[in-house]
TrEMBL record:
Alphabetical list of InterPro entries matching this protein: NAD(P)-bd_dom_sf, Sc_DH/Rdtase_CS, SDR_fam
GO molecular function terms listed in the Swiss-Prot or TrEMBL record: oxidoreductase activity, acting on the CH-OH group of donors, NAD or NADP as acceptor
CDD domains: 17beta-HSDXI-like_SDR_c
Name this polypeptide is given: SDR family NAD(P)-dependent oxidoreductase
Coiled coil: none
Keywords: Oxidoreductase
Highest taxon in the source lineage: Bacteria
PANTHER family: PKSB, RETINOL DEHYDROGENASE 10
N-terminal signal peptide: none
Entry similarity comment: Belongs to the short-chain dehydrogenases/reductases (SDR) family.
Organism of origin: Cryobacterium fucosi
Tagged with keyword Acyltransferase: no
Length: 278
């Protein structure tokens, strides 16, 4: 499975559109045994399922599930259905996420802060916990967990405080899980943490890429993530300036970094025109 997902069961959250749908198309194209789609939009999920079934032509089972992963109880219920109806996934891609681009004092706790933390940080943990025991006891069969985080979880940025907090939590948990699995002799289960900058999915409509950090296309990101997943790569930063910025943030005194990030790279102004997906 280090070269292809052929014969594997692949679960993708936020699978009805955007990058989630691209991951699902990739899995079908490579002959996955089952492609398990989780999304909260039943209409979009039905359309994607029909397209994937046509492309699969019977070679892959396409299994759609309408589930809002902000409802942590629904995760357990849907996971049980998946285990019964399809089987435990070999690959889990925690792709679903939301963003609220406002100053912290403008956030509503119920409409903004709570769902952002539930969907971006808690849901990947709950989902992975549902399927991880079977992956660990899978007689050495290669398994993969992919967590789509964000560069925002590594670098502070105005108008992203809650989003950044959710992604920082995801990064900390994801890489700690990788270490735990390795240290406890479960190296056949590999975790990849993905930290991209802005992607042109509409989610960050209006955001501007900082200096030397172009907006990423979904197709490019999915291709890089897919290859990193198959290789079992621990962490993927995109583009290269994300790693550079993180290193500079650790080396420079904070006032100097604030000047470099704000005045030179333009990181602190990148969300000034943010409108998000309408």
């Amino acid at each position: 499975m280090t070269r292809t997902v052929s014969g594997a069961r692949v679960l993708i959250t936020g699978a009805a559109m955007g990058m989630g749908r691209l991951y699902a198309e990739r899995a079908v194209a490579e002959g996955a045994k089952a492609v398990i789609l989780w999304d909260r939009d039943p209409a979009a999920l039905a359309v994607t399922t029909a397209i994937l079934n046509e492309r699969a032509d019977g070679r892959s089972q396409v299994a759609p599930y309408v589930v809002d992963i902000a409802d942590l109880g629904a995760i357990a219920q849907t996971a049980q259905r998946v285990r019964t109806e399809v089987g435990n996934p070999d690959i889990v891609i925690n792709n679903a996420g939301i963003v609220r681009g406002s100053y912290f004092w403008e956030h509503d706790n119920g409409d903004d802060t709570r769902p952002t933390m539930q969907i971006n940080a808690l849901a990947p943990m709950y989902i992975t916990r549902e399927f991880l025991p079977a992956m660990i006891s899978g007689a050495g069969r290669e398994s993969r967990i992919v967590n789509i985080a964000s560069a925002a979880g590594m670098l502070s940025n105005p108008r992203m405080s809650v989003y950044a907090a959710s992604k920082a939590a995801l990064i900390g948990w994801s890489d700690s899980l990788r270490l735990e699995l390795t240290q406890q002799g479960h190296g056949h289960v590999k975790v990849t943490t993905v930290c991209p900058s802005y992607i042109t999915t509409g989610m960050f409509e209006g955001a501007r890429g900082p200096l030397l950090t172009p907006l990423l296309t979904p197709e490019h990101v999915v291709d890089r993530v897919w290859r990193a997943m198959l290789a079992g790569r621990p962490m993927l930063l995109m583009p290269w300036t994300v790693g550079l910025s993180s290193a500079l943030r650790g080396l420079l005194p904070l006032p100097v970094w604030d000047f470099v990030a704000g005045r030179v790279f333009g990181v602190y102004r990148s969300m000034d025109s943010f409108v998000g997906r309408r």
